[in-house]
C-alpha cells in the first residue's frame, strides 16, 4: 500500500491514521471480493483450436463507479489438491507450456463507465514450427487502485492533513488455451468417498487424466437417474495426472429416495470437441 508523504506527527496520531486507512481498505476489499459480479466476463476461458485465430472478450463493469482496468498474462500451475497457484517471474515448470508469447491482445488498459462494457480482442500468432500439444496461460483483468481523500478526527490538536484511503477491488483471471495437433484425453474416478455433517455432504474423489489435453466439465450427483446436485467448472490441467477434488452438496430435502449409493458423473460441456457433452468418467459413492 502506498501512502502520501506527510510531515512528521505524533505516534498516536500516525497510528490512528494508518489504522483507519488499513481498516477502510480491508473493508472495501472484503465487500468487493464478496461481490462476484463486480467484474463480469462473456467467456469462462478462451480456446484457440483448429483454424481459430481471434477471440473477442467483453468486460462488464458491474459496479456503480467508473473503473480503470489493466490486463495481462501470468503463469498459473494447478496443484493436486489446492487449486491454482501463481508462479513468480522467472520460475519455470517443465510440465507447463505457456501460451502468452503467441497471444496478443488489445487494448491493454481500459476505462469502463459504471454499468458499461469494453471489448478486448485476443489474436493468435502461432509459430510455424510449434510442437503439437496444449499451451496455456492465464489472462488477468485487474482494477487499478482507487484513492479517495478523507479527514480523520483530530487528536490532541495535532493535524497532519488529509490522508489517503486506498480501495482495492478484486480482479479476475481466465485460462487461455492454444491447442496444436490431434487432441485426446480420457479419465477415471477413484477413491470416491462421502461424509455427512448435519445438512451437508462432503464428497472427495480423485480424477485421473491421461492424454495430451486438459479436462473440463461439471460433476453431477444423481440417484436413480435423478440429478440431486451439480457443481460446474471442474478442471484437470495437463500438468496433473491426478487431481483430488473436494466438493460439498446439501442433503436433498426429499431425501435420497431409498438409494444406498449415489452416481457421481463427470460430464463434458456441449462444446467439447471430443466428448460433446457426454460422460467423461463416473463412479459411485455410498450415501452417508
From TrEMBL:
SUPFAM superfamilies: PapD-like (SSF49354). Keywords: Signal. Residues 1-38 form the signal peptide. InterPro entries: PapD-like_sf. It comes from the Bacteria. This is Pili assembly chaperone N-terminal domain-containing protein.
Amino acid at each position: 500500500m502506498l501512502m502520501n508523504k506527510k510531515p512528521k506527527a505524533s505516534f498516536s496520531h500516525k497510528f490512528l491514521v494508518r489504522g483507519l486507512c488499513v481498516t477502510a481498505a480491508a473493508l472495501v476489499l472484503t465487500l468487493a471480493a464478496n461481490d462476484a459480479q463486480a467484474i463480469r466476463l462473456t467467456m469462462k476461458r478462451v480456446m484457440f483450436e483448429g483454424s481459430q485465430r481471434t477471440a473477442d472478450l467483453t468486460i462488464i463493469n458491474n459496479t456503480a463507479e467508473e473503473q480503470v482496468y489493466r490486463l495481462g498474462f501470468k503463469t498459473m500451475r494447478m496443484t493436486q489438491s489446492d487449486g491454482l497457484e501463481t508462479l513468480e517471474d522467472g520460475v519455470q515448470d517443465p510440465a507447463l507450456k505457456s501460451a502468452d508469447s503467441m497471444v496478443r491482445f488489445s487494448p491493454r488498459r481500459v476505462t469502463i463507465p459504471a454499468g458499461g462494457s469494453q471489448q478486448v480482442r485476443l489474436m493468435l500468432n502461432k509459430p510455424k514450427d510449434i510442437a503439437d500439444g496444449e499451451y496455456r496461460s492465464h489472462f488477468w483483468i485487474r482494477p487499478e487502485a482507487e484513492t479517495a481523500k478523507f479527514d480523520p478526527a483530530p487528536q490532541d490538536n495535532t493535524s497532519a492533513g488529509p490522508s489517503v484511503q486506498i480501495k482495492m477491488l478484486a480482479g479476475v483471471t481466465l485460462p487461455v488455451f492454444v491447442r496444436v495437433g490431434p487432441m485426446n484425453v480420457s479419465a477415471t474416478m477413484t477413491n470416491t468417498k462421502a461424509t455427512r455433517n448435519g445438512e451437508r455432504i462432503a464428497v472427495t474423489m480423485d480424477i485421473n487424466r491421461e492424454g495430451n489435453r486438459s479436462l473440463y466439465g461439471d460433476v453431477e450427483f444423481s440417484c436413480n437417474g435423478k440429478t440431486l446436485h451439480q457443481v460446474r467448472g471442474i478442471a484437470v490441467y495437463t500438468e496433473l495426472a491426478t487431481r483430488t477434488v473436494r466438493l460439498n452438496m446439501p442433503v436433498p430435502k426429499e431425501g435420497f429416495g431409498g438409494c444406498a449409493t449415489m452416481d457421481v458423473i463427470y460430464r463434458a460441456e456441449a462444446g467439447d470437441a471430443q466428448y460433446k457433452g457426454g460422460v467423461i468418467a463416473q463412479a459411485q459413492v455410498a450415501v452417508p
